[in-house]
Design a protein that fits this description.
Layout lengths: L10 E4 L5 H12 L3 E6 L2 H11 L5 E5 L5 H11 L4 E4 L18 H29 L2 E8 H4 L6 H21 L4 E8 L5 H9 L1 H8 L11 H11 L10 E4 L8
Parallel strand pairs: 1-2, 1-4, 2-3, 4-5, 5-6, 6-7
Helix pairs in contact: 1-9, 3-4, 4-6, 7-8
């Protein structure tokens, strides 16, 4: 029997949906039938994605800085409750801008922690209560192997992502009895637009970054989207409190 991922009638919010992984996730949820709110700090990017998904009937752009509690609450007022929340907004490390912890300072930490952990707290808190009240919901947070495994020169980024994973595990234990599942998808290095541009300047860098992966390439945004859609569907109702690696076999989960 073929498995069908059906999200007809569901409403989804994807933070950081204006490019890269977020755009592919928004596309997958839309193709499965969900109405998608595409959040981004840049309204033009969000609008371009929403238009491609079929705005206003199938999608809508929502500009908001998800690091701001006030702006998150305004976004919540604008969208109303959603059935599916994907916490995707984050600052990735690119392999070109890494620093050892001793070479950083508190000013370097604040933005990374605010977006990769603080935003997850604010947005999840704004939306999950209505899911509990409705008796159905999905919260999916995009994490990183830097937080799951630990990586040199990514201690702060890894700490933020590890904190987000800890939040999701604890929340899963609280809301599972109410029909709400909470999971993470942990990524390896993704071949997004910023990296592609950097590879054009340094072609050998992509080959070097690909070496640790059992599947010998970097991740593509589309590699993530189908798993997120599955976790968001009724087919994922008995999957909660988990962290799923999408990382080409770099750091297998046990």
């Amino acid at each position: 029997m073929a498995l069908t991922i059906g999200l007809d009638g569901r409403r989804a919010l994807v933070t950081g949906g204006g490019n890269g992984v977020g755009t592919e996730i928004a596309n997958a949820l839309s193709q499965a039938g969900a109405f998608v709110f595409v959040n981004d700090i840049y309204e033009e990017r969000a609008s371009e994605v929403a238009d491609r998904l079929g705005a206003p009937e199938r999608a809508r752009a929502v500009k908001a800085d998800v690091t701001s509690p006030v702006k998150v609450l305004r976004m919540r007022e604008e969208t109303g409750p959603v059935d599916i929340l994907v916490n995707n907004a984050g600052i990735p490390t690119s392999g070109f801008d890494l620093k050892s912890f001793v070479d950083t300072n508190p000013e370097d930490w604040e933005g990374v922690m605010r977006l990769n952990l603080g935003a997850v707290l604010h947005v999840t808190h704004a939306y999950v209560g209505a899911m509990v009240d409705a008796g159905w919901g999905r919260v999916i947070t995009i994490a990183s192997d830097a937080g799951r495994k630990g990586e040199r020169f990514q201690a702060i980024y890894g700490a933020a992502k590890a904190g987000a994973m800890g939040l999701m595990r604890g929340l899963a234990a609280e809301v599972g009895a109410s029909g709400v599942t909470v999971n993470c998808v942990s990524l390896g290095t993704m071949r997004t637009a910023a990296l592609v541009a950097a590879f054009e300047r340094d072609p050998d860098r992509e080959r070097k970054l690909s070496r640790p992966y059992v599947v010998p390439r970097l991740g593509e945004p589309k590699d993530v989207a189908t798993l997120v859609a599955l976790l968001a569907s009724d087919a994922g109702e008995w999957i909660t409190g988990q962290v799923y690696p999408v990382d080409g076999g770099y750091a297998p989960a046990l």
